[in-house]
Amino acid sequence: MVEFATDALGTSHLRRAVSVIHGNEPSRYIVAPNGIKRIGAPGGAVVPCHPMAYPYLVRFCHKPDNVQALSVELIGEAGGEGGATAVAVCHSNTSTWDNRYFEMLKAARGEEICHFMPQNYLLWVSEGAQ
């Protein structure tokens, strides 16, 4: 996984980004004030790694084009303790995606689509990127 990310990003200085839940998990989240910041370089210099359905841990890693990765600070809607730091990925060019995604998301082809990465996913960026 690290070798692929190193080759895909062109550097051995990698930083890992993951979604993390802090404290108690609230039932609903909202984005914290000033809670969104860019991760990695604009234009897709990220390598996400998704777990696959195998009897042991296997991850599928790839370097998608036309993506923007974000770190999003979330807080519980009702206040109190708990929250999360979530990794989000926005795909700006979805023109080649399978129609099933658009049906599932009730979106149109070519529309920008953003999603959070679950806790067991990894996102690799070059270490110098913010």
Written account of the structure:
The chain is mainly β. The chain has one domain. The chain has helices at 2-9, 99-105, and strands at 14-17, 20-22, 29-39, 46-51, 59-61, 67-76, 83-91, 113-117, 122-126. Strands 2, 3, 6, 7 and 8 form a five-stranded antiparallel β-sheet that branches. A four-stranded antiparallel β-sheet has the order 1-9-4-5, with helices on one face. The protein is globular. Residues 1-127 form the BURP domain. This is BURP domain-containing protein 4. Pfam families: BURP. InterPro entries: BURP (IPR044816), BURP_dom (IPR004873). It comes from Dichanthelium oligosanthes.
Structural class: mainly beta
Count of domains: 1
Distance between the termini: 21 Å
Binned strand content: 35-45%
Pfam family, one: BURP
InterPro entries: BURP (IPR044816), BURP_dom (IPR004873)
Protein name: BURP domain-containing protein 4
Domain BURP: 1-127
Give the helix/strand layout.
Layout: H1 2-9, E1 14-17, E2 20-22, E3 29-39, E4 46-51, E5 59-61, E6 67-76, E7 83-91, H2 99-105, E8 113-117, E9 122-126
Antiparallel strand pairs: 1-9, 2-7, 3-6, 4-5, 4-9, 6-7, 7-8
